[in-house]
Amino acid sequence: MITPELLHYGAAVTTIIISTHGAGIALGIASSGAQDAFNRQPTGHNHEFRAMIIGLALIESGAIIALVTTLLILLRGVQSITMESAIVEMSIGLMVGITAAAASIASSFAVRSATQAIARQPLFASKIITFMLLSQTIIEAPVIFAFIVGIIIKSQLPHITLLSQALHLCAASTVMAVGCIGPSIGQGIFSYAAGKAIGINKNAYNRLFPFSLINQAFVETPMIFCVFLAMLMLYTPLPTTTSLNDPIRLMTAGLTLAVGSFGSAIGIGYVGAHSCKQIALEPHLYGTLIRATLLVIAFIESVGIYALIIAMFLITKVQ
What CA–CA distance (Å, rounded) separates 155 from 134? Predict the structure, then answer.
């Protein structure tokens, strides 16, 4: 039998289990890449090892945020737990856990490519590490967004008395949890290719660096849309009746945007990854490549905007 207490403690366990699974896989991917780099370039061990340690620490940051979320859930008094509030806590746990796991795995590819790039260009290690840190910081941003949304949702738990209100808040956490997956895949694809491109041609660094900032911002755009939609949901007045029409409409709106953003984020990641390779091989074609890439990205981004329009239309129908 599912009880409020079971959901409450299950939410805490779910948060840490999902995030640590993602972090564990990510740490394995990153460290295996570093070991390959050690074998390739024995003289660059110090630089490669430093990049690996810094990168692993940033990968672990998602699991640390999940740990804090778990403690915040557990510190809530058991006496005040209701089935409705426990359902919301489970949604918070899934949101933070999935976001942390996805970001950790994406971040591991930035570390993997950075250590291998250092093996190719050991004298260029400091700039490669800077590039890796920038990429990881952008990749980990959704975890911060999810944590903030989780804090806002948690602050409303004392006011939740109806299932309709609980599902209203669950809609906000759902759009964040599902919406992070596509951008994380896109970031992983792009960051790996960008780091590899620097290893191929260090002289293209000054072109690859600004291009990466632009491309990663576009890959992250669908996640920004999800954050925007989640905030709109949270600041839409909670329902005062038992009718589930409005919460279901909000949940549908969230899934429309979150799932609809998968293709655009991954597509932009692939386009950017291929462009990085071409910039490294033919840096003199940078102007042509970036114009073509931005044009393609504009078309791809429109797909996510279509999903956002439908999601906003659904939200405006909430009474």
Answer: 32
Q: If we measure between CA atoms, which residue out of 40, 194, 202 comes closest to residue 121?
A: 202
Reduce the DSSP state of residue 86 to 3 states and report it: helix
Q: Which residue has the tokens 């549908």?
A: 252
CATH number, domain containing residue 66: 1.20.120.610
Taking only the tens place, the pLDDT of each residue in 254-307 is 999 999 888 889 999 999 999 998 998 888 888 888 889 889 998 998 888 999
Residue 9 has a pLDDT of: 87
pLDDT (tens digit, 9 = 90+) per residue, 223-234?
999 999 999 999
Residue 43 in tokens: 């003289």
Between 51 and 319, the higher pLDDT residue: 51
**Number of neighbouring beta carbons within 10 Å of residue 164:** 20
Copy the structure tokens of residue 119. 């093996």
Cα–Cα distance measured from residue 202 to residue 187, given in angstroms and rounded to the nearest whole number: 21
| Count of domains observed in the chain | 1
Token digits for 269? 């990641």
Q: How far is CA 201 from the centre of its chain?
A: 29
Domain hosting 241: range is 4-316
Share the mean pLDDT of the chain.
88
Cα 154–Cα 224–Cα 266 angle in degrees, nearest 5? 120
Distance separating the N- and C-terminal Cα atoms of the chain = 34
